[in-house]
From TrEMBL:
Subcellular locations according to the entry: Cell membrane
Protein's organism: Caloramator proteoclasticus DSM 10124
Entire protein: shown range: 679 to 955 of 955
Domain EAL: start-end pairs: 24-275
Annotated protein name in UniProt: PAS domain S-box-containing protein/diguanylate cyclase (GGDEF) domain-containing protein
Length: 277
């Protein structure tokens, strides 16, 4: 761009831009290192049934073993650099391996959800790789749940919906993640073959804010149920919100009110737990 504007032009980088760039490069180095040494781990956060207080499922969330960097920071870097594909396979295999380990221990396991990046959907052999992993550990496919955001799905709509359909055929469960943050076209819910929508924390917080319209939540829950989708609410921190959302028929709740994401030893104890609802 600068070139086309003539010869004597300069591009200025602000100190913040350079700092940001340096941070990204540093993060990329860390991720490469973690991949080499398999220095990732998963933590698990329960989704609690609003009606019974039982744990219905877990969401697996990635952490770096030796660094305190949040996924919100490193996942975008992993996506830009393409490292997310390998990281994503690690996450899926680790979750499936963990399910198998729990089954072998005689635990009555619940489904585990993993987050999927749009970048990974571009991998031609994604579906067959996923089938391979499930076969390798011979678990029931319905014990695996894929969480994908609405904006990721819309990146290459036709193709991605086909992939989701294939995953459904395998028997994998599908959740639309971060609902309420992107386009939020209620229309597309009618043609994505999902099992759950997950209402995003920021969306819920907005609805509960002073000028918010929490009645909207009625409509969304109603529509979701009409379409045979269960509603999961993310980021529930207080009782008041919980009670309201429960009264509106939201099916499952995930948030600090019940539990933070915990490591596998801790998660194992939660299968049999009944939370107060
Ligand atoms: P997400 O999929 O929407 O996950 C929910 C996030 O909300 C998690 O943050 C979780 O720890 C946090 N959370 C849950 N309950 C509460 C609550 O009551 N209050 C607050 N303030 N936060 C709550 P986390 O683990 O930092 O992950 C952030 C995002 O990073 C995830 O958002 C997801 O988009 C992405 N991510 C995490 N793990 C993976 C992964 O393995 N693969 C990919 N592609 N993305 C991942
Ligand atoms: Mg998620
Ligand atoms: Mg989410
Ligand atoms: Mg979210």
């Amino acid at each position: 761009k600068a070139k086309s504007e003539g010869k004597n032009r300069y591009i200025f980088f602000s100190a913040e831009m350079i700092e940001e760039l340096e941070k990204r490069i540093e993060t990329e180095k860390i991720l490469l290192d973690c991949l080499k040494n398999k220095d990732f781990k998963l933590v698990y956060q329960p989704q609690v049934s609003s009606k019974t207080g039982e744990v219905h499922a877990f969401e697996a969330l990635i952490r770096l073993k030796n660094y305190n960097i949040s996924p919100a920071e490193f996942i975008p870097v992993a996506e830009e650099t393409g490292l997310i594909v390998e990281i994503g396979y690690f996450v899926i295999e680790e979750a499936v391996r963990q399910i198998k380990e729990w089954i072998d221990k005689g635990i009555e396991v619940k489904p585990i959800g993993v987050n999927l990046s749009a970048v990974q959907l571009r991998d031609e052999s994604f579906v067959s790789n996923l089938k391979e992993i499930i076969k390798k550990y011979s678990i029931k496919p319905s014990l695996l749940k894929i969480e994908i955001t609405e904006s990721a799905l819309m990146e290459d709509k036709e193709r991605n919906i086909k992939i989701i359909e294939q995953l459904k055929e395998v028997g994998i469960q599908i959740a639309i993640d971060d609902f309420g943050t992107g386009y939020s076209s209620l229309n597309y819910l009618t043609f994505i073959p999902a099992d759950y929508i997950k209402l995003d924390k920021s969306f819920i917080d907005k609805m509960f804010a002073k000028e918010g319209k929490k009645e909207v939540l009625d409509g969304i829950t109603f529509l979701a149920h009409q379409l045979n989708l269960k509603v999961v609410v993310e980021g529930i921190e207080d009782r008041e919100q919980f009670n309201y959302l429960k009264s509106k028929g939201c099916d499952y709740m995930q948030g600090y009110l019940f539990s933070r994401p915990v490591d596998k030893e801790e998660a194992e104890k939660l299968f049999a737990k009944r939370f107060e609802v």
